[in-house]
Amino acid sequence: KFSVHEKNNEVHQIDRLSRTCTIGQSVQTAVITFSDWASLEFILYHDSESVELEWTVGPIPINDGVGKEI
User: Fold this and answer.
1) pLDDT given for residue 4 in this prediction
2) Strand-pair category, 2-4 with 18-23
3) Residue 64: pLDDT over 80
4) CA distances (Å), 7 to each of 2, 11, 18, 69, in order?
5) The predicted structure's pLDDT at residue 15
6) Is residue 57 classed as helix, strand or coil in its secondary structure?
7) What is the CA radius of gyration of the chain?
8) Mean pLDDT of 40-60
9) Per-residue pLDDT tens over the stretch 33-49
10) In sequence order, which residues have a C-beta less than 8 Å from that of residue 45 and are 6 or more positions away?
11) Which of 27, 69, 34 is nearest to 55 (CA)?
């Protein structure tokens, strides 16, 4: 899993990527966690033809002096 900076083509490895999936009677979810401050959740309801996406971002750490792209 890698992220590429579009201006200078620097490649950064995403080390802490994790996935969690759950299946319930009426809903299925998959959560991808990119870091302590960024995750993406996919939600599928059994009676629906659509998918719900929920991004969670923040608080973004700034004390390390490294810029972050969202």
Assistant:
1) 46
2) unpaired
3) no
4) 16, 11, 27, 12
5) 62
6) strand
7) 15
8) 92
9) 988 888 999 999 999 99
10) 26, 27, 52
11) 34
How far apart (Å, rounded) are the C-alpha atoms in residues 13 and 17? 10
Which tokens sit at 58? 């923040």
Asked if 23 contacts 43 with a C-beta cutoff of 8 angstroms, the reply is no
Type of residue at 18: S
Rounded Cα gap, residues 28 and 52, in angstroms: 11
pLDDT for residue 12: 58
**Amino acid at the residue 23:** I
Peptide bond into 59 cis (omega under 30): yes
